[in-house]
């Protein structure tokens, strides 16, 4: 069991920052998922916590003790690498049992734990093979098994399911959720997969170019993105974002762009004519022939099986609408769309920050901003 604190950690390679002033406070027993585009610093951050990379500045604490300079084996953490990092000369069984042998457990105990974990991850038939004779997905499961065989204070996992097929991925995902519940251990988990992030995380930290954009529950990030980057990163397809203007009309505020005119339901707010970046999620737009909020022309209809994605061009934006199938519209048709005022997100067009006058600030959840005790 462990609380992990990352206190203003930066990592520079030459003159470039891979990680910039990142602070995170991960409570004991949390399942924190780190999300972000390729190259944003996720692996570097994980490697620094594991002790495989030295921070340029900042501190890392486990249960309040500063471990920034501790050797990897002195940290009670198990890591699953993006690249598996198996011992090529050892069999699967020996690879899985390695952490227990290093801790001088009895032969009988090691054999039993290896059998259990191998069974859980469907590796029982492969125990005598060497890594070279395994598929990518099998190697990944061996790497997971090696971490799961012991009972560390925290698990650090770098895209541990990326090479598994859809069925095995969803089974292993359930396995990890169960493992987390059973052990009550702290998980710090890196993924590209939004489904993994939304389903597994107690909180998500979204990174962008070495910095934390937002930390919060999956619902907070999805429903109240703090920045336009978060809004555009989460969701598939992502939130529609387009430049617009806030205008005051007959005593009420409206958001307007070419082909778009929506009530905002705000009492107070910005000056008439304020430029904003507006956002509406595809599933929050509804096709309605009589609607005047959005008027546009259908440019494409994509059939996803259960749903359809309808692309609608207004003068100002190309909007994606997610609708039950059949959406009942054809390419070239002029249609209307409706959206509730509460589903419209507004951001500062320069810095991309959510405009605070839109709604009251929530209780402070953003521990990235909180200082480490
Ligand atoms: N040893 C190194 N020397 C120089 N630059 C490095 C080194 N390791 C990482 N970087 C750079 O640091 C940045 C962050 O890399 P990192 O591997 O942490 O990204 P990531 O978020 O894990 O990406 P991905 O999702 O593709 O795995 C990248 O620009 C990368 O090129
Ligand atoms: Mg990586």
Automatic annotation (TrEMBL):
Span of the secretion signal?
none
Q: Where in the cell is it found?
A: Cell inner membrane
**What keywords sit in the KW lines?**
ATP-binding, Cell membrane, Membrane, Nucleotide-binding, Translocase, Transport
Cited SMART domains: AAA
GO CC aspect terms: ATP-binding cassette (ABC) transporter complex, substrate-binding subunit-containing
Q: Which GO terms describe its molecular function?
A: ABC-type transporter activity; ATP binding; ATP hydrolysis activity
Q: Where is the ABC transporter domain?
A: 4-234
A GO BP term here is: carbohydrate transport
Tell me the InterPro entries matching this sequence. AAA+_ATPase, ABC_transporter-like_ATP-bd, ABC_transporter-like_CS, ABC_transpr_MalK-like, ABC_transpr_MalK/UgpC-like, Mo/tungstate-bd_C_term_dom, NA-bd_OB-fold, P-loop_NTPase
Q: How does it sit in the membrane?
A: Peripheral membrane protein
Assembly, in brief, is: Monomer. Homodimerizes in the presence of ATP. The complex is composed of two ATP-binding proteins (SugC), two transmembrane proteins (SugA and SugB) and a solute-binding protein (LpqY).
What job does this protein perform? Part of the ABC transporter complex LpqY-SugA-SugB-SugC, which is highly specific for uptake of trehalose. Involved in the recycling of extracellular trehalose released from trehalose-containing molecules synthesized by M.tuberculosis. Trehalose uptake is essential for virulence. Responsible for energy coupling to the transport system.
UniProt name for this protein = Trehalose import ATP-binding protein SugC
Annotated organism of origin: Nocardia aurantiaca
